[in-house]
Write a structure and sequence with these properties.
This is Glycerol uptake operon antiterminator regulatory protein. Keywords: Glycerol metabolism, RNA-binding, Transcription, Transcription regulation. By secondary structure, this protein is α/β, with parallel strands linked by helices. It has seven helices and ten strands. An eight-stranded parallel barrel has the order 1-2-4-6-7-8-9-10, surrounded by six helices.
């Protein structure tokens, strides 16, 4: 299931506790420690949340087959976000929802990321920064994949513009938008 709507992106335990009391169906865990992860995911699932992990930001986990196997067997997330094609491939291999995160720094980065997406074949793409509606449209047209907009989204108008440009969801750590 590809998440839709606003998806809170959690950076600390205070925000984690707070988001569990909201009606949001999905959350993204950023900057987590391996020792906390299993309990956090289990607790979030007891609160009926879908949990997506930013694989690249898990402290203490190596981006290899064994790291992915550990996540699948022990942590049991609903999906993975990563900037790395290898991690996306591992997630797909293990039937996890794979969200390729890409940073739009310039046109060269866009071209390189589109090439990576064709190779890794993610289920969905997260475009950062998510405040460039024209680029959301372009990445969606070029990839044919659902787009999540994230990064620098601070106002309702940013959310509206991204959704109108074709994004299916918005990730944000800005609690006022939750």
């Amino acid at each position: 299931m590809i998440p839709t709507g606003i998806i809170p992106a959690i950076r600390n335990m205070k925000d984690f506790d707070e988001v569990l009391e909201t009606s949001h169906k999905a959350i993204v865990l950023l900057e987590t420690r391996l020792a906390q992860l299993k309990d956090m995911v289990a607790y979030a699932k007891r609160k009926n949340k879908k949990v997506f992990l930013h694989f690249d930001l898990i402290q203490g986990l190596k981006a290899d087959d064994y790291g992915m196997e550990f996540l699948i067997r022990e942590v049991k997330p609903d999906g993975i976000l990563s900037t790395r094609g290898k991690v996306i491939g591992l997630a797909k291999k293990h039937n996890l929802l794979a969200i390729q995160r890409l940073f739009l720094l310039d046109s060269s980065a866009l071209d390189n990321n589109l090439t990576l997406i064709r190779k890794s074949k993610p289920d969905c793409i997260e475009v950062l920064p998510g405040i460039i509606p024209r680029m959301i449209e372009k990445v969606h047209q070029d990839s044919g994949l659902p787009i999540i907009a994230g990064g620098l989204i601070k106002e309702e108008t940013d959310v509206t513009a991204a959704l109108e440009a074709g994004a299916v969801a918005i990730t944000t750590s800005d609690k006022t938008l939750w």
